[in-house]
Design a protein that fits this description.
This protein has 285 residues and is α/β, with parallel strands linked by helices. The protein has 3 domains: 81 residues, Arc Repressor Mutant, subunit A; 82 residues, Periplasmic binding protein-like II (D-Maltodextrin-Binding Protein, domain 2), CATH 3.40.190; 94 residues, D-Maltodextrin-Binding Protein, domain 2. 40% of the residues lie in helices and 25% in strands. The chain is built from 9 helices and 11 strands. The strands form 3 sheets. Strands 3, 4, 5, 6, 9, 10 and 11 form a 7-stranded mixed sheet that branches. The termini are far apart.
């Protein structure tokens, strides 16, 4: 019996859905629409002839066949990467200076950096975290081989790794009262989330006051969860006890925000690192 052909793209989509916790977040990491991701999952199940997921309450969990397929999918993708390295004959050795937006250090990106360091021990990583604006300026001064930052308007020389819709995040207990200043929790300036939310509030004529300032996402979300303030983030920042406050409650619509990468053309290591990271892109929280 002839076995079905399975593309690595379908396997990558499957693995990303599992690692992301669902189709929505996977679509943002893969920079694909939700319908495309769902279609690729269905195509993979059709070619395998088994169901990979089952519905448990409101959640989807892997079936026993899905658990088995996940193990082999990871092996196949890893083997593909090894094959490409062997064919290209690239010597991955040297020093790589990476700048990362501080809004990304609390997410999956730090874990991916650890995986990269373990996979390529001869590459010495020097990772520094700063605001997206500082990273952009420092890159222009040739302080970094590559940077990964947030922006509302990607430029032509930046690679978009992922995008996410900005939302107002608040405590489950929060109720918006237009008669009093809106209490805000922000990162210290400069901060993309902060500047975008300030412009949106000003355009909507909503008075606000700063109630909490930090450079740590966990601390910021603790203030939000305790109903001390609201914050403009993405849905990836949501935690138990918090919710999205929609425009129907009186707060203005917010735009999308992009995670982008920029590499120095003379750095082969930087280009290799970003190509390695692209299938597992970081998302903004």
């Amino acid at each position: 019996m002839k076995l079905p052909d399975i593309s690595t793209e379908l396997l990558q989509t499957f693995v990303t859905v599992v690692d992301s916790g669902g189709v929505l977040r996977a679509s943002e990491r893969l920079f694909k629409t939700q319908s495309t991701v769902s279609m690729q999952l269905s195509r993979l199940e059709e070619r395998l002839g088994v169901a990979l997921f089952k519905t448990v309450g409101r959640r989807k969990e892997l079936t026993p066949e899905g658990e088995t397929m996940l193990i082999y999918a990871r092996k196949i993708l890893d083997l593909q990467n090894e094959a490409l390295k062997a064919i290209q004959g690239v010597q991955f050795e040297g020093e790589l200076t990476i700048g990362i937006s501080r809004s990304l250090v609390d997410g999956d990106l730090t874990n991916e950096l650890s995986k990269f360091a373990m996979q390529y021990p001869l590459i010495k990583l020097n990772v520094r975290s700063a605001s997206s604006m500082h990273l952009h300026n420092a890159f222009e001064q040739e302080e970094f081989d590559c940077i990964i930052r947030l922006t509302q308007d990607p430029s032509a020389d930046e690679l978009v790794l992922s995008k996410a819709k900005m939302v107002w995040v608040a405590s489950d207990k929060f109720q918006f009262d237009p008669g009093i200043p809106l209490r805000m929790a922000n990162f210290t300036t400069p901060c993309q989330f902060r500047s975008i939310s300030e412009k949106a509030l000003k355009a909507a004529g909503i008075v606000w006051q700063e109630a909490y300032t930090t450079n740590n996402l966990n601390a910021l979300m603790s203030a939000v969860r305790g109903n001390l303030a609201v914050s403009a983030r993405t849905q990836h920042a949501l935690q138990p006890g918090t919710r999205v406050v929609g425009p129907e409650e009186g707060l203005p619509e917010l735009p999308e925000i992009f995670v982008v990468a920029q590499t120095r053309g003379s750095s082969r290591l930087a280009e290799f690192f970003i190509s390695w990271l692209a299938p597992r892109p970081p998302v903004a929280a």
